[in-house]
Specification:
The complex is a heterodimer of chains A (326) and B (349).
Chain A lengths: L6 H15 L3 E5 L15 H5 L4 E3 L4 H13 L3 E5 L10 H8 L2 H4 L9 E6 L14 H5 L5 E3 L4 H13 L4 E6 L21 E4 L4 E5 L3 H14 L4 E5 L2 E3 L3 H11 L2 E8 L4 H13 L8 E5 L10 H4 L3 H9 L7
Parallel strand pairs in A: 1-2, 1-3, 3-4, 4-6, 5-6, 8-9, 8-11, 11-12
Antiparallel strand pairs in A: 5-10, 7-9
Helix pairs in contact in A: 1-7, 3-4, 8-12, 9-10
Chain B lengths: L21 H26 L13 H9 L6 E3 L5 H6 L4 H4 L1 H4 L8 H4 L11 H14 L6 E6 L6 H12 L4 E7 L2 E2 L2 E2 L12 H5 L3 E5 L3 H16 L5 E6 L18 H7 L4 H12 L4 H23 L8 H4 L7 H18 L1
Parallel strand pairs in B: 1-2, 2-3, 3-7, 6-7
Antiparallel strand pairs in B: 4-5
Helix pairs in contact in B: 1-2, 1-12, 1-13, 2-10, 7-8
Classes of the chains: A alpha/beta (326), B alpha/beta (349).
Bound molecules: thiamine diphosphate.
């Protein structure tokens, strides 16, 4: 491919390569077969691997996830697609009560190597129910791994790692970045559970994941022009959480802002801020700030720009980090 | 149950007994003309970039019109995203209906005043609500009937099953109208159900069920009127499966060439609900060129109203984001509203 791939193509390649490598990998969901998914992430899989390996199901998310549980119990590695964030909710009972718990309930005798892919987040002008940031529901549920890539290389690598993992993974795809074209490095596969420093910076650390990573990088870029040196950490694995990388980055700068799109109350951003405060207290020059979506249902398309954390709101929070007092 | 109930066939010929009165059919035809025009207008607005997205009911207008026409003012309609024309047929201003798809707000009309529930996007989730509205009416001693719409795909959801079962057990005054348009985005009916028909599912709930030609307004009117009358007199719910077809793509974002042939679509074109009713009413003399011109003029007037309304930029107040989340905004929401107001002030000054 001469043109750089989109994130969709990176994910598609990961599915393709995983299916070629291991015939127990099966892909199913709504419209994932001949259509190739509404976003084309599963494009070509039915044609290449046949209708037993990639297939459309009846329109029933609880059924899709529940059937995946049974298939995983019987030696397969299901990778299921929830068409949009909010359309995974009918499957919530299966995910929370069964996917997350079976390993623990059976004292580890039954492991569920399955992946639930969920396109999530806003910024695409979608009508309601197509833009939710649902990560906190999953992250709050012990037993689920929760990852979210921010680059095409991570999209490929984390999906491969998720499919190979013995435990269930909720794989959150930032649909705002679906069409971003970037180099794709297929090797080595990043391990689940490691954050990554995307930009070194000495003055303060921006902590982001998924759709807010590019926003944080843009904010750091603008801050640099204004003479302030911001680092950016990409969490990419919400569960398990990489305290080590995050703590080290914040200790270097003494200031931190967590940036996430989801409503801030009782959120993943809150968890990160709390962990950083506990671990870095003696290194902090200012309280850890959160810049998040407002505590409102996702807005209609024409108002979403007011809701989403943008560069200005991030830089305002950075300005608030008690610079005068040091 | 294998052949759908039909009163007027594709050529306009009467093939069954109990045809509605000519005036009823003429009113119905007028509503079909308006519904078709509304679909065409909304599709055009999408092409011009003035509507974000439009799931067209082109080809399904008979279901849309009949679902609204058989209801009394005090009854309720529970529509999906595809049922813009049904809501308009109930008398709601199309501009208010299109507000969601225009991106201004999630629901542009007052459900309590119009007795039309907000359009449901998460599939089948509105069906238990419809049962609840009906059940409450019964408990209050009102004779309200609820018309609940969904597609063939939605019948696979758990909420569909739970709603129908509840309604049957409580003899709730609900008519479930499934518009079987053969596809759920790309997934054909055969992947949704192995039953002989979707109407066949009624037996499992202990509820009467009818399979009807969904492109025959006369048949739909008779079947739905009967179901509404039964519900109103306490006879409980009915499942109606309307055999129809989605002529357009799922939405403008969809590429149907990936999952169906043009030939298949072409087979359905002659079964169009407008063509057959026009043929019938013309042959009986009920539809004169004057009436036809009158209906076309009414449709053009409606379309002009929609275009004009869409041309105006609505003034949206970002502060509204915080206004309706709770009956009284929480202290935290008031803080967040102040933050946004300060940001916007800064931008302006
Ligand atoms: C719970 C849920 N899952 C998935 C979707 C995504 N989706 C939107 S429309 C659609 C197909 C619906 O088909 P059907 O019920 O037959 O209605 P139609 O669109 O044909 O009118 C799907 C899968 C959704 N809206 N809600």
């Amino acid at each position: 491919m001469t043109e750089k791939p989109t994130m969709i193509q990176a994910l598609n390649r990961a599915l393709h390569d995983a299916m070629a490598a291991d015939e127990s990998v099966v892909v199913f969901g709504e419209d994932v077969g001949p259509l190739g998914g509404v976003f084309r992430v599963t494009d070509g899989l039915t044609a290449t691997f046949g209708g037993n390996r990639c297939f459309d199901t009846p329109l029933a998310e609880a059924g899709i996830v529940g059937v995946a549980v049974g298939m995983a119990m019987n030696g397969m590695r299901p990778v299921v697609e929830m068409q949009f964030d909010a359309f995974a909710y009918p499957a919530f009972e299966q995910i929370v009560s069964h996917v997350a718990k079976i390993g623990n309930r059976t004292r580890g005798r039954v492991r569920l190597p399955m992946v639930i892919r969920v396109p999530y987040g806003g910024g695409i002008g979608g009508v309601e129910h197509h833009c939710d940031s649902s990560e906190a529901y999953y992250a709050h549920t012990p037993g689920l791994l929760v990852v979210t890539p921010a680059t095409n290389t991570d999209a490929y690598g984390l999906l491969r790692a998720a499919i190979e993992h013995p435990d269930p993974v909720v794989f959150l795809e930032p649909k705002r970045q679906y069409f971003t074209r970037e180099e794709l490095d297929q090797d080595p596969v990043p391990p689940i559970g490691r954050a990554v420093v995307r930009r070194e910076g000495g003055d303060a650390t921006l902590i982001a994941y998924g759709p807010t990573v590019p926003v944080a990088l843009a904010a750091a870029e603008q801050a640099a022009a204004e003479g302030r040196d911001l680092g950016v950490v990409d969490i990419r694995s919400i569960v398990p959480f990489d305290d080590e990388t995050v703590t080290a980055a914040v200790r270097r700068t003494g200031r931190a802002v967590v940036v996430a799109e989801a409503p801030g109350f009782a959120s993943v951003a809150s968890e990160i801020a709390a962990r950083v405060s506990e671990r870095c207290f003696h290194h902090l020059e200012a309280p850890v700030r959160r810049v998040t979506g407002f505590d409102v249902p996702y807005p209609p398309p024409k108002l979403e720009r007011h809701h989403l954390p943008g560069v200005d709101r991030i830089l305002d929070a950075v300005d608030d980090l008690q610079w005068d007092e040091t | 149950m294998s052949e759908p109930m039909r009163l007027i066939n594709e050529t306009g010929a009467v093939v069954g007994d109990g045809l509605p009165e000519p005036e009823v059919l003429l009113d119905g035809y007028r509503a079909l003309v308006l519904a078709r025009r509304l679909n065409a207008q909304a599709e055009a607005l999408v092409r011009q970039g003035r509507l974000a997205v439009y799931p067209s009911s082109h080809g399904q207008e008979a279901c849309q019109v009949a679902a609204a026409a058989v209801l009394a003012d005090t009854d309720w309609l529970f529509p999906t995203y595809r049922d813009v024309a049904a809501i308009a047929a109930r008398g709601v201003d199309p501009l208010d209906v299109l507000m969601m798809l225009r991106g201004d707000w999630h629901c542009g009309y007052d459900p309590l005043a119009t007795r039309v529930a907000p359009q449901a996007t998460p599939l089948a989730t509105q069906l238990p609500h419809a049962v609840g509205v009906g059940h409450a009416a019964r408990l209050k001693g009102e004779d309200t009937v609820v018309m609940a719409l969904c597609g063939d795909g939605a019948t696979s959801e758990g909420d569909f099953h739970e709603a129908l079962n509840f309604a049957a057990v409580f003899a709730s005054p609900v008519v479930f109208l499934v518009q079987n348009n053969k596809y759920a985005i790309s997934v054909p009916l055969a992947r949704q159900s192995a039953a002989e028909s979707l109407a066949a599912k009624g037996a499992g709930y202990g509820m009467p069920a009818v399979l009807v030609d969904g492109n025959d307004l006369a048949a739909l009117t008779v079947v739905l009127s009967e179901a509404v009358a039964r519900a109103r007199r306490g006879g409980g719910p009915t499942l109606v499966e309307a055999d129809t077809y989605r002529i357009r793509a799922h939405t403008n974002a969809d590429d149907p060439s990936r999952y169906r042939t043009d030939d298949e679509v072409d087979e359905w074109r002659p079964r169009d609900p407008l063509l057959r009713l026009r043929a019938h009413l013309t042959s009986t003399g009920a539809l004169t060129p004057e009436r036809e011109a009158e209906f076309a003029a009414a449709a053009e007037e409606m379309a002009a109203h929609v275009r004009a309304g869409m041309g105006e930029e609505t003034a949206l107040d970002p502060a509204e984001l915080f206004a309706h989340v709770y009956s009284t905004p929480t202290p935290q929401l008031r803080e967040q509203a102040a933050l946004l107001a300060a940001e916007l002030n800064e931008v302006r000054s």
